[in-house]
Amino acid sequence: MAYSLLTHLNSTRDDWTVRVRVCRKWDSINFKRNRELMSTDMILIDEEETLIHATINKNLVNKYKNLLSEGSVYFIKNFKVSEASGVYRPVTSNFKISFFLTTALQELQEGIVNIPINGFHSAKTKLTLWEELGEKFELFLYNDSGPYVVIVTSTTVKQFRGGVTFATTYASKIYVNLEIDYITTLIQKFGPTFLGVQTIGSSHVNNIPIEEEMFMNRMNITELLESDWSAEIHEYIVTVRGNIAEVDNYFDWYYISCNLCSKKIVPSNGVYTCHFCAKECKFPLVKYKIHVKVRDKTGNTTVVLFNAVAEKLLDTFAHKLFNRLSLESNNVPPLIQSLCGKEFIFKLRLNNYNLKEGLENYTVSKLFIPDENLELQYTTRKEQKVL
What we know:
Blueprint: E1 17-30, E2 36-45, E3 51-57, H1 61-64, E4 73-83, E5 95-108, E6 126-128, H2 131-140, E7 150-152, E8 155-160, E9 163-168, E10 174-176, H3 181-190, E11 199-201, H4 210-213, E12 218-219, H5 221-226, E13 236-248, E14 254-257, E15 267-268, E16 271-274, E17 279-280, E18 285-295, E19 300-306, H6 307-314, H7 318-323, H8 334-337, E20 343-350, H9 352-355, E21 362-368, H10 372-386
Parallel strand pairs: 3-5, 6-9, 12-13, 19-21
Antiparallel strand pairs: 1-2, 1-4, 2-3, 4-5, 7-10, 8-9, 11-21, 13-18, 13-20, 14-18, 15-16, 16-17, 18-19, 20-21
């Protein structure tokens, strides 16, 4: 289904179609009229992280209230776009969306599109938390020593004594230490020095302690390349410590995938068809597949960072870098090039491609940032076993 980005909306037509996530949803109440419902309001976000305010008039609330849920992704078609005016503007967009009786919705499965769950605009100022929100927030202050990254949504803004102040409303919501990469980075930046092992990789449940996992079947690169694997082994896990020496862009740093099976697809006459799913792919995804050359004191090899690992390492979606390709002077975006020279412990998943055919391009399943104290302990234990 063809659709428009939120930045393209204007008030010249009312047959728009957008693909968005509902990142906030609340009822607007008129407290001066015995808590009368005025509307149901939402903050919508699209794949470019653009935000827009959407409202459903009280006469239509019953029609749509069970069809929309916070956090879900939808196609929304046929609605009014008007200029955002008035005192209450929960986002900075110049336009807002109003539902018609004929507005149509289609919910999309999670994972088909890369639309962030939240979109926040920040400011440094004074904030008043009223009533229940203030009481709930106070509880967080006694859980641990912090630091706390607090996000407050849907506030009112007023001029007071020459400055700008914010206050919560009935639509406000508070997030404390929200589990997203940007917030985690801030906590690590302003918190106490972190002495443990940092990991960058897939968040699979693993019963093996990180301190053991990062040394699992540890090899240097020469040992990895010269190992004689048994024919009975079909998959094997090893770890290698090394520096990223170069980004090998012979195969490009990304690929276009089917949104259902994640297999690589290529267009034919402008149409993407997935041969595994045997159907046209209307919503192809851009995913990472970065080949990098890794070097240690004994040699060098090539490993591959697929989407799950690369996305966490780079802290951005592949499609965002892809959309800026025309502006880059190099085929490899600078953010990816900046990996060169950095040292990691690579947890590699070897398969038949490596074990039987003897080929490189090892798949990276997880990355660790080396901890020298743990490395010394590992070396000591290894030497003691030899003795």
